[in-house]
Write a structure and sequence with these properties.
Structural class: alpha+beta
CATH superfamily of the largest domain: ATPase, nucleotide binding domain
Strand content: 15-25%
Number of helices: 17
Largest sheet: 8 strands, mixed
Low-confidence stretches: none
CATH class of the largest domain: Alpha Beta
Distance between the termini: 58 Å
CATH topology of the largest domain: Nucleotidyltransferase, domain 5
Number of strands: 27
Radius of gyration: 22 Å
Shape: globular
Helix content: 25-40%
CATH architecture of the largest domain: 2-Layer Sandwich
Mean pLDDT: 92
Strand order of the largest sheet: 20-21-22-19-18-25-26-27
Length: about 525
Amino acid sequence: MSDTAYILAHDVGTTGNKSCIYRITDKIELVDSYLAEYPVYTLSNGGVEQKADEWWNALCTATKAILTRSKIAKKDIMGMTFCAQMQGSIMVDENGDALRNPMSYMDGRSTEQIARYLYRGLFKIGGKFHIPSTLKSLYYTGGMAATAKDPLWKYHWVRDNEPEIFKKTHKWLDVKDYLTLRCTGNYGMTRDSANATFVYDTRPGKLGWSKSLCRLFDVDMNHLPPVLDSTDIVGNLSARAAGEMGLAEGTPVFGGGGDVSLISIGSGCLDLHDTHIYIGTSGWVVANVDRRMVDIDNFVASILGAIPGRYNYVAEQETSGACLQWVRDHLALDEIGMYLEAKHVCEMNDVYESLYDFLNQVISQTPAGSGGVIFTPWLHGNRAPKEDPYARGMFFNLSLTTGKRQMIRSVVEGMAFHKRWMLEAIEKRIPHRETLRFVGGGAKSPIGCQIMADITGRRIETIRNTQNAGTIGATITCAVGLGLFKDFSDAKSFIPVDKIYEPNKANKARYDKNFNVFKELYGKNKKLFEQLNAC
């Protein structure tokens, strides 16, 4: 490819939006990026919300910043798209305005709603799920809304608890689909988000909203938007949105996708059974598969991917990189503060870079195994392989000789132990993979990558700009939609391996022993977690 194309991609995450401009020639090159943060609002009833206007303001702030800094003319942006957090729930009225604060993927207040539809009846699968409802959901969607945090139950929570808002609801959207609406005035939901509602028929050749499931789960089909591919144009940027963002009116806005779908592409995992590990605020292990798959016992299921005919087989972890943020704020704030002051760091992007530099120093100076200390990274419950909203983090096996640095290293090891646990579940259904891609902010740390290799026992590959895998994936979907790539297979060579980490066999026995204890900690404390944390 000899011509130059510029694409604007937004990574709408849990705690901020990062806007990125990419230049596509014979490679995909990051021109500039800017992170604008926003808060998460945690409620006492298990609710976790954000504000739609704060998403939008962050989007506009970041877009204007990178256009100003890069000096790229707004007319030269050929297309725009989103990679966003998934399983949010945004109810909008006929004007497209959000009727209430969006409910985050972490929102777990819908316990009564899931119990009403899935826990009723005498005959149950796994001692929990109503057999007829479960089998029907599995037949049509290949999965089920198995936790109180799934969007289907948030929909019903609003209906039960905020009936006046529910009466005004025109459409029910996911995060990026709300933002594309705000950009273009057009409704559209990509197939991955439609799949995540679990009222969308995902059978090959049968794709579409399921009337049968909508009847079963009492969903008004008028609330469901049109469904499109990630590479489709939702619409063109309106004059109002263009003015607020500093872009050219009429810029095409593509469907994009959820973070799971697009990070899989941006990691370079484009072939069958390619598997990647992601550590951001949340975390997961995802494998590319060519058919629908589900493992109810381990809470692993496939969703439609951005690549036509492919599914992402997903095991998700609720809090992953968020554990490092917790370390920063509550365990190492004094040392990190002195470190940042010594480095004269003041800008937020520089703070994050220096945080990783500091943690790299701390962890690399601490022996593998953290002196026998084990951390469980379940700060907001867990999903796979053991779904449990009551599970929490803990430091196990502290002694008088335990120091703060051992505790910090144990957090990174705990994150890796959980990825190994999810990988075990994934590989019950797909071939064993000797090589894994590792992406997200967690993959920026060389010692973190080495720990991941040592604990999983696999060769770990990282890519350049690993923290931007989502926007790389979004850029590729946009490029396919624009015709810059013939199809997704053309993009494989554009995402080369940057670094490789081989497992250190000297650490194997120690980590295998700690991993076995790590898994037992959940089972032995499950009832205690519930005693302490159930409402």
